[in-house]
Amino acid sequence: MKLNLKIWRQAGPAAAGRLENYAAHDISADMSFLEMLDVVNEGLVRQGKDTIAFDSDCREGICGTCGFLVDGIPHGPDPGTTVCQLHMRRFKDGDTLTLEPWRARPFPVLKDLVVDRSAFDRIIQAGGYTSANVGGAQDANAILIAKPVADQAMDSAACIGCGACVAACKNASAALFTSAKVSHLALLPQGAPERYSRVVKMVERHDAEGFGSCSNEGECEAVCPKEIPITNIARMNREYLKAMLVIGE
Ligand code: SF4
Ligand code: FES
What we know:
Elements (H helix, E strand, L loop, with lengths): L2 E7 L8 E7 L8 H14 L22 E2 L2 E2 L21 E5 L8 E3 L2 E2 L2 H10 L19 H11 L6 H5 L6 H12 L8 H14 L10 H5 L7 H17 L2
Parallel strand pairs: 1-5
Antiparallel strand pairs: 1-2, 3-4, 3-5, 6-7
Helix pairs in contact: 2-5, 2-6, 3-5, 5-6, 5-8, 6-8
Bound molecules: iron/sulfur cluster and FE2/S2 (inorganic) cluster.
FE2/S2 (inorganic) cluster binds next to loops.
């Protein structure tokens, strides 16, 4: 396959960016999208030119490191799929694709398709953990948890922190990410002692980082590679309301 690519090039956070045209030749339908970019970058190296910067680590859809817009869609056109798991068989010979970084003020562009997502780390640091001293490792079944509850908590914990939800939201809200992290701990007994202080701290950090409010557009759920449902946002809002009533902040 041959593809025409329009790729956002930006030398650094303060530099002006622009779309530049590239041709990707000899692309196998079995390659992943990132392998296709590897081929383009190998060509740039041979020409002595600056390679296209993009993030990746596991390339198996589990780490959340990769992510950019393909024709305006976070992670590209396949639902429930990270861009590292997107395959070139999804596209046709001669297609023209536009690649851009996440567009959100709390995610400043570092270079080309790479953005700074440390705002997510700071939301987690604000409360996305349990600090109870639990001593040595417990037997797995020492605290009995109903299967439907464990399943819900696991579904929320599946969030890989990629940031696609923010990129898709017209408000640049990180409500889906934050609510997934709030939910998986709030649902389990181990997370119960700090559940109210946790949700308040995480929501306050979310707002302080400059993410917008959720207005129930549902774009986040539609593009989330882990298919995290927006029912998590409703749960976070209920947790926050209860926290206001319980701790009165
Ligand atoms: S909620 Fe989904 S889209 Fe948002 S950071 Fe988590 S995995 Fe990515
Ligand atoms: S590189 Fe890890 S999820 Fe894509």
